[in-house]
Each structure stands twice: as C-alpha cells, then as structure tokens.
Design a protein that fits this description.
The chain is an alpha+beta fold. Helices cover 26% and strands 21% of the residues.
Length: 502
C-alpha cells in the first residue's frame, strides 16, 4: 500500500496501484466519514478500476481527518485518498483548498473540452486589476487554490502555479451595452465608469470564446463562482434567456428556450450529458488504442453446427445437469486450434531500444467477452488449455457471474491472451470485432439459425452459424488465420472426431 506521513500525528494514505500498472481509479463510494475511527486493513472506500469494483483498506489506524475526493471523481494512483490522525491527537487544520471543489471541477471540464490553460507569460502580459486584500499573495507560501489540475506551493499536485483568481491576468472591458437594453436574468447592471474600473473575473478561455462568439459582454454577467468568478454555466444561463444570444445556423428558433442546454453545432437541445468514466472510459481507451496500434485483418466462414447441436442434445438427455453449453464446446475447439496455430496466442511488445518482439505463451488464458449492466467486460479463464469442456463451462459461468456483479478481480480482467466473443446472443450473424489490446486475435461466434445447406448433393435445412476471426497482421499472415478458422469450423461440423482426440 502507498502511504505518506505528513506529521507525527497525521498520516496520508496514497491510492495504490490496484493491479497490473493501473494509473487511476474512480471513487464509487466512501465506506467511512471524517471523524470515524478506523483500524488497520478496514475498508475505507469502493473504487472502480480495470473495470472491476475494489474495496481499498486503510494501512493506518486512527481517526479519519480528511477524505480526499468525492464519490464519482477520478483519483490518480499515488494521489492522496485519506488522511488519518492518531487517536487522541488534536485535529490539524489544512490551508489547502480541496481540489474537488465545484469551481475547480468546472475548470477541469472546460479544459477537457480542448481549451488550453493561459500560460504565465500570457497572464503577465494581460492587464489585470488585483484585489487589494490579495496583494500579499505573491510573497506567501502559495494560495492553496487549485485551477485545472495545477497545484500551488505547499501542495503535492504539481509544481506549476497560478495567481489568485482575483488578479489572474483579467483584462478590463469597455461595455457597449445600451442604457435602455433589457436585462436578462444573470446579467449585472453596471455603469460604464464602474465597468472601466473593474476587471472581468473570468479566467477560462472557453468561457471567453463562448461569450465572444455570442456577442455577449462578460462585464455584464453575474458570476456565481468564488469571488464572483464567471463560469461557463453563468454564460450559458444568460445565453439561454437573452434575445441577443447567437443562434446556430439551421435553427428556425429566434431564441433559445429558457433553461435549455443547447448544442450550438446542431441547434438541438441536449437531453443529457453522460461523463465518460469508469467502465465506459476503460473500454473506450482500450478500443481506441487497439485500432490505433494494431493493423488488424478479418476472415470469416459459415459453419454447419447441426452435428454439434445434436451431440449436445444427446448428452443433455443422458446427463441433464452435467452437459456443457455450446460456448464451452466452441472454446474447447478454439483452444485445440491455438495449440496448432500458436501465432494467434501471442503479444507484440516494444523493447527499450525501439525494436519489437513477439511473446509466445506457454498456455492460454481464454478471455470471454461478457456484456453486463456496467459495460463490456472480458474476464479470462486462467490456463484454459488444461481444462475439459465441462471444466470450461463451469469456469465460464462463474466468471460471467462475478463480472455482472462487479466482483471480478483486476487479474481476471487483464490477464487474457486470446478472446472468444459470443455476439450471437444479441441476435446478430457476424461482427468485425476490435481486438482486445494487447492480444493478437479475437474469435467471434454468431447466432445459430436454420438455413438452406447442401448436404451430400441435396438441399437441406441445417443449423448454421458464422465464425469470424480478427487478427493482428503483424504476428501472422492470412494462411495461419485461415488455417485456425478452418480447424475450428471443421471441429464444429464434426465434433465427435475432434473431441475423441482431446
């Protein structure tokens, strides 16, 4: 566990790496509150990382002095999680402002939208009007304020600093507002002389651009942030109620409905904003990296699965409670195929000297794609190559259950070397799947349906499915991929002969 001692009486517990080099975790729920007494190894928080839910225990005993962060926020590995004070010690005050304050979080969201932070040179070059009561800020040990992820001296969020909001390079604005213009809600009435003397409390370039594009004078906007700071929500509130707001091209409305959150590009009202975090964020990052780094190719084949279904039906008649599912049989055939074509059970890694190498594994950890309420998860059956179809069936069912309950471990979710995806359960025939990075291949199984099929020169109705293999073209060529896919297809069409050899 990572920990940092800040004083003889207060100890800070840093979020540890919870598995396989993870860099961050989403704080789902606090299990303790400030002032609670905790013991060593007592769970203090639930976090979501590597697409699994994990309880984090405290390495210290004492009284919770501070909880660093709120539920729903993302905490980087190595950042403070909790501060624990020894029992009986006096509470110590902290001069640092919480980085999870609403204003700071609003600025972070604005930067994530693609807006850069003003540099120190830009701030220094811009005319500014500092507040008299904040002029001593320059010589102190740091304001403690945190803006868009930057810390101030005395904090451990980074060495880059920003001046206090009241004097942070804010230009004086000449308001062109007509005297008799109607005042919309959230708009401040000011005289020209007052506006000339007062700096606009708005440091976000995104907010300034939003106002500039709409022709809105920021000096007339009432800020709701600290010390009257103008935030994005303040500008959007005024634009949503002011008849002077710019209307996107293609919109037939002369004004934006009051209180509406509108997409300026399409002109449509936004029904909901869904943060990309947790499972969805992990999936997005993995899929993006896969498409960016892996030159993939796809091959597929239609397969007559009638014989396999007949075999399973007969086994189920004899042993109703001990018959593997169809996915377990296909998994067993795929594992036998990987023994013949081990190039697909590999991984490409970059070496320190810039060269690459292909890692071949002694064994197979078979990932099983599972759709859950929390997103797509891929728990892996460890050393699946050593298991029978019955053993595979039991382990696949267990992993699917723990994944849906959010109890799969990081090791189970990150240790796969080859993935099997049964997308037929969604009623589709095929899919150009994305490889589960950093693996080299993924095998997909479509739905099994009745189709016309030629058998011994005659047309018949058979149970047909489609197998799809997406593979990394760096580790093998089409001959290997086609040979593996044909082997699995032949095993499905003639399961008895293959199972006899396994």
């Amino acid at each position: 566990m990572s920990a940092m001692t800040t004083s003889p009486t207060v100890k800070v517990f840093l979020l540890p790496d919870l598995g396989e080099g993870l860099t961050e975790a989403e704080l789902v729920n606090w299990l303790v509150a400030e002032g609670d007494t905790v013991s060593v190894d007592q769970p203090v928080a639930e976090v979501e990382t590597a697409k699994s839910m994990v309880e984090v225990p405290s390495p210290f005993a004492g009284v919770i002095a501070q909880l660093h962060g709120e539920a729903g926020t993302t905490i980087n590995v190595g950042a403070p999680l909790i501060s624990v004070r020894q029992a009986g010690a006096a509470a110590e005050s902290s001069s640092a402002e919480s980085i999870s304050s609403p204003d700071a979080e609003a600025y972070r969201e604005e930067e994530r939208a693609g807006v850069s932070v003003p540099t120190d040179a830009e701030i220094a070059a811009a005319p500014a009007v500092a507040k008299p009561d904040e002029s001593s800020e320059e010589s102190g040990g740091g304001s403690g304020n945190v803006l868009i992820g930057y810390g101030t001296p005395g904090t451990d969020t980074g060495g880059r600093t920003r001046r206090r909001r009241g004097g942070s390079g804010l230009a004086t604005v000449e308001p062109p507002k007509a005297p008799d213009a109607p005042v919309a809600p959230g708009v401040r009435e000011t005289s020209s002389s007052e506006a000339e003397k007062r700096a606009v409390l708005c440091i976000s370039p995104l907010v300034r651009k939003l106002a500039r594009d709409a022709g809105l004078d920021l000096s007339s906007v009432e800020g709701t942030g600290a010390d009257g700071m103008i935030l994005r929500r303040d500008v959007e509130r005024v634009l949503g109620t002011s008849g002077d707001a710019a209307i996107p091209q293609g919109s037939s409305d002369s004004t934006v409905p009051e209180g509406a959150d509108q997409d300026r590009r399409s002109g449509l009202n936004i029904a909901e904003r869904v943060p990309v975090r947790g499972v969805r964020k992990a999936v997005a990052e993995a899929m993006t990296r896969s498409r960016r780094e892996i030159p993939e190719a796809t091959v597929w084949v239609d397969v007559d699965a009638t014989a396999l279904i007949d075999l399973r039906t007969e086994l189920k008649r004899r042993q109703p409670d001990a018959t593997p599912g169809l996915l377990a049989f296909v998994a067993r055939f795929a594992l036998a195929g990987l023994a013949r074509y081990p190039e697909l059970n590999t991984r490409i890694v970059e070496r320190a000297d810039g060269s690459s190498e292909i890692l071949r594994f002694d064994g197979v950890n078979l990932g099983i794609a599972a759709q859950t309420d929390r997103g797509l998860l891929v728990p892996a059956v460890h050393r699946a190559d050593r298991m029978s179809a019955r053993e595979l069936d039991a382990e696949i069912r267990r992993l699917a259950a723990v994944a849906r309950e959010g109890k799969a471990t990081p090791a189970e979710l990150t240790s796969g070397t080859f993935t099997l995806n049964n997308y037929g359960v969604f009623g589709v025939d095929g899919s150009a799947a994305i490889i589960n990075h950093p693996e080299a291949a993924i095998l997909g199984l479509g739905r099994i349906i009745d189709r016309p099929w030629v058998v011994n020169g005659e047309l018949a109705v058979r149970k047909v499915t489609e197998l799809t293999l997406t593979f990394d073209h760096r580790v093998c060529d089409g001959g290997v991929a086609g040979g593996f896919l044909r082997y699995v297809a032949d095993a499905i069409e003639n399961p008895g002969g293959v199972l006899a050899d396994l």
